[in-house]
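Appendix C reproduces, verbatim, an entry submitted by the partner laboratory led by Prof. M.T., so that reviewers can inspect both the input and the predicted structure.
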Amino acid sequence: MMRMSDAGLLATAHFEGLVLAPYRDSGGVLTWGIGHTAAAGGIDPVKVDLAMPSDEGRALRRILAQFRADLAICETRVNRAVTVALEQHAFDALVDFDFNTGGIYRAMLTRAINARADNPSRHFLGWLKPPEIRDRREAEIAMFDHADYGTAPIPVYRTDGKGGLGPVLRRMERDALMAQLRVRSE
């Protein structure tokens, strides 16, 4: 069974951003941490205080533990849905896609990969709702086709304490987030 690489999970963290308190995403879904919603199971964002945490370190530890659990679910789904061998970067792109859409089982992308169709990555662009997700789909194509994971730091957002997403509080370098993730997994 394949698992997402460090580079892949950092790319997903970058795409999602890290939000220390719950907020309503563009679809109105209460979201917390690194793209976590109640639908994923685990910690229900409704039960997390809307106020910015006073102990950021503790909040970050909870967020990263939930992120690992959410990724494990997506890794399992991708391993089950894709029936052909994948290179690590292609697997990582598919886990990111499923993390964002939950659509790995019903995507034309998956059917094209399993059928060994030419240029299956073009089917990432079949999932462009909301429209502002296009940059992420294009980055997933770059990851799938060329092992291009990007290098941008992870944005850490503030919230307004009422479920609204605020401005970027700071940017966390990828190696700093990776160090935190390693502490959680040891």
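The chain has six helices and five strands. Additional entries are available on request from the coordinating office.
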